[in-house]
Amino acid sequence: MRITVYELNRVADAPGGGTSANHRGSGIHQSTLSWEDKMKHLIRNTALATTLLFGAGVAQADWPTDRPIEFIVAFAPGGGTDVMNRTLAPFVEKELGAKITILNRPGASGEIAYTAMTQARPDGYTVSSLNTPGYLTMQMDRKVRFDPKKLCVVARIVEDPGSFIVQANSKFNTLKDLVAYAKENPGAVTVGTTGLGTDEHLAMLQLEKSAGIDLTAVTFNGANEARTALLGGHVDTIGINVGEFVGSDHSAFKNLGQFAEERASIAPDLPTAKEQGFEVLMSSERGIAMGCDVPEEIRTKFSAAVKKALDNPEFQAKAKQMSLALSYRSSEEWNKELPVRAERLGAIWKLAKEQK
């Protein structure tokens, strides 16, 4: 595997950035912890988040009507995370009787947004998107600039399987075509992803291992940027979630296959990687988080508003129109699942370590 960093300048320039021998130019700082210690620390911290759902502080009686709630989206406008939250926000506003302002803070697989979230005042006026696998794998790869114990999940909204797409006129029609070319031309096939340790990156690692090939990763700040680069011929293929592909104008692209156990209901005609002979299974979870030190009363009220918004038939109709792969989990349910997911992702992420 080769990695080309397209745009992580803001991370390289930020405190804790810089360059390592393993990710030259990526602005990622490597921790001195052993692999085993990193995994134990990550799983312990993820499990601990469940017990931190009851933050300290005094709830403001006028929350949330005295000023807008700032919703930090960890990826660029136009991608699946951005679309999901912009679709949901008006319905949450209605339930709360409040104004929500979307603020995109892309970069470093979400680390910039998560850092901003944990540094915000614990008054309930700042919330953030949260995506796995990136949120979990970044903690395996490096010392992050935020304290994961200070970030508590509110709800999972979507679980969307990954896929690889190419230009409509590409010589690749299936994953088998791409693999055959990559075997003859090691490192020549470039794959656009939205960051190291994201679902697209981990899917690429699995395909490399399953097919015995060598691919080159090119990192972008969001799916929209990656799609633009693909259209311009700057990369051969990009990783994109099935919902993002189906829910937008995809006439200029072809999808080579989805990375689901079974064909997703939103793409019943798209073969899985497994059907094509490759062991690749990867999806993106998208949800919402708040600071653990935000008063419990506020977090509970916000969580309830999100659930009511999701149950709204009008929202569900819009979600279907946008091809959002809805898969709700409450904060308690998602917190129970995250340590298990972290352990599974750790085994995949170890593939990257083995290749360095």
* Helix residue percentage: 40-55%
Report the total helices: 12
- Determine the mean pLDDT: 86
Shape: globular
The total strand number stands at 11
Give, in order, the helices and strands: EHHEHEHEHEHEHEHEHEEHHEH
Instruction: Quickly give the structural class.
Output: alpha/beta
Our estimate of the beta-strand percent is 15-25%
Low-confidence runs of at least 5 consecutive residues: 3-31, 50-59
> Which oligomeric form is depicted?
single chain
From the N-terminal CA to the C-terminal CA, the straight-line distance is 8 Å
Radius of gyration: 20 Å
Q: Can you describe this structure?
A:
With 356 residues, this protein is α/β, with parallel strands linked by helices. 40% of the residues lie in helices and 20% in strands. The chain is built from 12 helices and 11 strands. The chain has helices at 9-13, 35-51, 80-96, 111-119, 134-141, 175-184, 199-211, 223-231, 242-246, 296-311, 313-321, 331-355; strands at residues 2-5, 69-73, 100-104, 126-132, 151-167, 190-193, 216-219, 237-241, 253-258, 283-291, 326-330. Helix 5 packs across helix 12. The longest helix is centred in the last third of the chain and has 25 residues, at 331-355. The chain starts with a strand and ends with a helix. Residues 3-31 and 50-59 have low confidence and may be disordered.
